[in-house]
Amino acid sequence: MRYSEKMKFWLFDLAHGNLSELEIIKGFIKYYVLYNQTIQNVQDDIHFHTNYGVLGEQTALESLNKALCSYVDYEKE
């Protein structure tokens, strides 16, 4: 189930920088990719369904992008 307590904890930890890159990737796949969701859905969930604020949203998106880029060995130009 996508909107589970575990997903809420994952979003909290993502927004507060408490996850390793592996935990970020696994959570993103488990709670978003398998449900045909994208990074935009992560941002929307944090923005509209939490009170983590702009800083939490930025932290989450930066961490997620960094983990995904690292996973595929992609370097931004």
Structure description:
This protein is mainly α and 77 residues long. It has one domain (5-71). Helices cover 68% and strands 0% of the residues. It contains 4 helices and no strands. It has helices at residues 5-15, 21-31, 39-49, 53-71. α2 crosses α4 (53-71) and α3 packs antiparallel against α4. The mean pLDDT is 94.
Task: Tell how many strands the DSSP assignment holds.
Answer: 0
> Alpha-carbon distance between the termini?
37 Å
Largest sheet composition = none
Indicate the mean pLDDT.
94
Q: Helix/strand-derived class?
A: mainly alpha
Summarize the structure.
The protein has 77 residues and is mainly alpha-helical.
Q: Can you lay out the helices and strands and say which pair or pack?
A:
Blueprint: H1 5-15, H2 21-31, H3 39-49, H4 53-71
Helix pairs in contact: 1-4, 2-4, 3-4
Which terms would index this structure?
77 residues; mainly alpha; globular
